[in-house]
Design brief:
Blueprint: H1 10-78, H2 84-100, H3 104-112, H4 121-130, H5 135-150, H6 154-162, H7 171-180, H8 185-200, H9 204-212, H10 221-229
């Protein structure tokens, strides 16, 4: 009797169907798990990238700040400190200019003089280089003082302002002062004439000569004539 091959028997196909039913879910699950694992890895990679970039940016910013601070510190350390003597000389120079209206040369001499402030030449020069002053205005204020208190002529005021033995202003500063001084030189000539008359008992002619002399008061002839005409008033 001829037997049927085993793959033609019913029990064989029942076994095959059962086997397929068992392995199919496991295969599908494995595939889904692999897909899920792959997607999860991609998400983690995506999230990780900004974190890495942010850290790099922060490091660069910190490095930039440190470099800026270091540069500032180096710059500060390169700036030489001003000696106390130099600062004090500048303060004194400012006082002489603002309170006594002195010239630049006059202030320098006062700062360095052994009978004055006694600063070193270097300290005095630093003071003059850094002094903020309007020496035209200083000369003008000095001119007004000479006119109001000593009744000097225009020429005498100019000479006193520019003389080395006087205020030591420059010729330009002295000229600015007499050009801009608002005063009455007739009055000044009369004041001087009265002082010569009362204190020295001088004659009118001698007084006039003294008022107009270049080695005397330096008033103009017109100013002297005004003074003589008003001596008895």
């Amino acid at each position: 009797m001829h037997k049927k091959p085993f793959y033609k028997k019913v029990w064989f196909w029942i076994i095959v169907v059962i086997f397929i039913a068992i392995i199919m879910p496991k295969g599908g699950s494995s595939k889904e798990d692999a897909s899920s694992t792959s997607n999860k890895g991609q998400r983690e990679e995506t999230v990780a990238k900004p974190t890495k970039t942010s850290s790099k940016s922060k490091s660069a910013s910190l490095a930039s700040d440190e470099a800026s601070t270091s540069s500032k510190e180096e710059k500060d350390s390169d700036e030489p400190s001003v000696p106390t003597e130099y600062k004090n000389a500048l303060i004194k120079a400012q006082n002489y200019s603002s309170m006594m209206n002195m010239s630049k040369a006059g202030i320098y001499d006062q700062l360095t003089s052994s009978s004055g402030e006694g600063f070193s030449e270097e300290a005095a020069q630093y003071a003059m280089n850094n002094l903020k002053a309007d020496f035209n205005q200083n000369a003008l204020k000095k001119a007004k003082d000479y006119s109001d208190t000593q009744y000097l002529s225009k020429q005498a005021i100019y000479d006193q302002l520019s003389a080395d033995a006087g205020e030591k202003f420059t010729a330009e500063e002295a000229q600015y002062a007499v050009d801009n001084l608002k005063t009455d030189y007739n009055r000044n000539a009369l004041k001087k004439a009265k002082s010569y008359q009362d204190d020295m008992s001088m004659s009118p002619d001698a007084i006039k000569d003294q008022l107009t002399s270049s080695s005397g008061e330096g008033f103009t002839p017109e100013e002297a004539d005004y003074a003589i005409q008003h001596l008895g008033n």
